[in-house]
Amino acid sequence: MIYLDHDNADIVVAIRGLNVAKESDYKVLLDNKLGQTKFNGGYVHNGLLKAAQWVLDAECEVFREVIERYPSYTLTFAGHSLGAGVVTLLTILVIQNREKFGNIERKRIRCFAIAPARCISLNLALRYADVINSVVLQDDFLPRTTMALEVVYKSFFCLPCILCLMCVKDTCTLEDKMLKDPRRLYAPGRLYHIIVRKPFRIGKAPPIVRTAVPVDGRFEHIVLSCNLISDHSIIWIERESQNALDGWRLPDMMFATKCSLSDACNTIAKQLENVYSSIAASFSSYFFYYICLIFMLFVLILVHRIVM
User: Fold this and answer.
1) Using alpha carbons only, what angle is made at residue 8 by residues 56 and 65, rounded to the nearest 5 degrees?
2) Residues 164 and 302 occupy one common structural domain
3) Looking at residue 304, what is its pLDDT?
4) pLDDT at 250 over 50
5) Is the same domain home to 198 and 77?
6) Using CA atoms, how far apart are residues 14 and 77, in angstroms rounded to an integer?
7) Are 184 and 178 in contact (CB under 8 A)?
8) How far apart (Å, rounded) are the C-alpha atoms in residues 270 and 178?
9) CB 280: neighbour CB atoms within 10 A?
10) Average confidence (pLDDT) over 84-91
11) Burial tier of 165 (Cβ tally within 10 Å: 0-12, 13-18, 19+)
12) Sign of torsion, CA 20 23 25 31?
């Protein structure tokens, strides 16, 4: 889909995610083996590259016409899941062939890959980090899936077993060995990791967004949680992304509204008080667990002495 956002002077190219009812989508996603396809000095996902080339060939004239009609607009590519991998490689293809699109400047091209598959090698991920941005919601399994996706989807009836084996394999693989393999694929570009849950906390926390690079350790291992599938959902990603954006806005600050300095200070004080209360509650829970552990150890020692 091509959408003209005149309010923000932007040309948006959006590609949908995986359609479970279409066999062709599975063929695209599963068409890949380690080191199968070399591209632009690195390695890429074979099926996603073919899909990106097909889109470029089919829509090249439309892209050129729209870009020439609106020469001051930015060009934004966006996609989710399967579409995220396609727009990633489509963005690289457009940058490589900018002369076909009116020599559009690189800084006017952007890509937002939502919950992407690992589709490009490390050197390409770093080379295009200024253009490509990936958004990952907490425990999403797909950006962390390092083995052939064909194995995962063909074994969907026992997906937890496969993910557990992958987790053990990645944990036992030395980091130096992983980084030295030029064929290894990574999530593309600069990563924005949305954190909405914290350990030992009931319910969700206010979303926190952390930036990362593709080799960040948190994306090198599968997280075995009850949310690793639901965190891949575009609905939850959109909702938590909006919550994170709302959290960045400071409507109570004097710089954003007509509030006075004292009102702004009071607001900040209340926010800090909430943070301190949360920390105190967490500390209290940890202290309770610590006391219970000591008591259990004491009981065990006492029973051992009685038996002896």
Assistant:
1) 35
2) no
3) 55
4) no
5) yes
6) 6
7) yes
8) 46
9) 10
10) 94
11) middle
12) positive
Say if CB 117 and CB 143 are below 8 A apart: yes
Domain region containing 24: 2-248
Domain C-terminal end among 248, 265, 300: 248
Cα-atom radius of gyration of the chain, to the nearest Å? 24
Closest to 77 in 3D by CA, of 230, 188, 166, 174: 188
Residues 295 and 184 in one domain: no
Average pLDDT of the chain is 76
pLDDT at 57 over 70: yes
Contacts of 150 (CB under 8 A, 6+ apart): 30, 32
User: What whole-number distance in Å separates Cα of residue 71 and Cα of residue 60?
Assistant: 16
What's the CATH code of the domain at 243? Answer: 3.40.50.1820
Binning pLDDT at 50, 70 and 90, where does residue 70 land?
very high
Shared domain check, 225 and 195: yes
Predicted pLDDT of residue 293: 55
Give how many domains the chain has, as a whole number.
Answer: 2
- Residue 23 pLDDT > 60: yes
Same domain, 215 and 298: no
More confident residue, 260 or 72: 72
Q: Between vectors from CA 153 to CA 148 and to CA 156, what angle results, nearest 5°?
A: 130
Question: Which of 209, 231, 248 is the last residue in one of the domains?
Answer: 248
185 with 271, same domain: the answer is no
> H or E segment at 273?
helix 261-307
* 133 pLDDT more than 80: yes
Q: How far is residue 76's CA from residue 62's CA, in Å, rounded to a whole number? A: 15
Q: For 216, left (φ over 0), alpha (ψ -120 to 50), or beta?
A: beta
Please state at what angle helix 82-96 crosses helix 23-30, rounded to 10 degrees.
Answer: 60
* pTM for this entry: 0.71
